[in-house]
Amino acid sequence: MVPIDARTFRVPIVGRVAAGRPIVADEEIIGYEYIDNKYSKDGHEYFGLRIVGKSMEPTIMDGDIVIVRRQNYVENGEIAIVLIDGEEATAKEVKESADGITLIGHNTAVYTPHFYSAQEVKNLPVQIIGRVVQSIRKF
C-alpha cells in the first residue's frame, strides 16, 4: 500500500480469483488500484484481485476488481477470498457453523452452495485469507 495523497492510496492487484469453481491461486502483480485512504488507517494489509467467473453475479461481476482486507476470519454473510487445499482460491459468501463452512455463490444457476465439513476444513485445509471490502467495476 502506497499513499498517493491525503485521500487515496495505491493497492497492488496481485492476480485473479474465481467467482465460480475454485482456480489455482495466482500471485503476480498485474496492476494497481487507487482506493480511499480510510482503509490505510486501520493497520491491515489490502490487496486487489480480478474476478474470473459468474458465480457472484449480480453482486460481483466477471472482470471486476475486488479489494481484500487480509484476515483469517469473516462474519457469517460476508464475502471472503477462500483458499482451498492451499492452491485453489475462490470468492464466495461464507456461512460458518460448528459443523463446517458453506461457500455460497450469489448466482445459484452457476454455483450451488458447497459445504465443507469441519474435518475437511482442517484436513484440506479450507482457509479464509481475506474479506472483500470493495468491488470496482470499470466500463
Notes on the structure:
With about 140 residues, the chain is mostly beta strands. About 5% of the residues lie in helices and about 50% in strands. It has one helix and eleven strands. Strands 1, 2, 3, 4, 5, 6, 7, 8, 9, 10 and 11 form an eleven-stranded mixed β-sheet that branches.
Termini gap: 25 Å
What profile does the largest beta sheet have?
Answer: 11 strands, mixed
Radius of gyration: 15 Å
Based on DSSP secondary structure assignment, what is the total number of beta strands?
Answer: 11
Break the fold down into its secondary structure elements and pairings.
Blueprint: E1 2-3, E2 8-18, E3 23-24, E4 31-36, E5 46-52, E6 65-70, E7 79-84, E8 88-97, E9 100-104, E10 114-117, H1 118-123, E11 126-136
Parallel strand pairs: 2-5
Antiparallel strand pairs: 1-2, 2-4, 3-8, 5-6, 6-11, 7-8, 7-11, 8-9, 9-10
The gist of it:
By secondary structure, the protein is mainly beta.
Notable traits:
single chain, 139 residues, mainly beta, 1 helix, 4% helix, globular
